[in-house]
User: What shape does this take?
Amino acid sequence: MPARWGSFAVGVALMLAPLVLGYASAGAILHDVAAGMLVAIGALAALEWPRARFALAAPALWLVQSGRGSRDGRAAAAELAAGALLLALALVPSGRRVPRGAALERSGPSPARGAL
Assistant: This one.
């Protein structure tokens, strides 16, 4: 699950990158804000549906490809870094989610309760 929150943070950072880095063109600003929103929403979806993490590979590949062709050096650096990080985080599996009661049922009685 920490990898999904990391992906969410990458999306938020991508949305804030034009403000922090000062992009030169409006097209690069719109592109990174839209891509960041897509990544953040996809990461939140992957928290609920773990297989959705593989869908984050598509915007990651898009960011790497657009970063390689970008004319704005700052936007290119942000897009390449975000894309590479998203690709790496998409490969990290989510932790296994076990319902609360199921973990207690499988472990058996506790020593304090079973001692009677």
Summary: Residues 26-48 form the longest helix (23 residues). Helices lie at 2-21, 26-48, 57-69, 73-90, 100-107, 111-114. The chain has a mean pLDDT of 82.
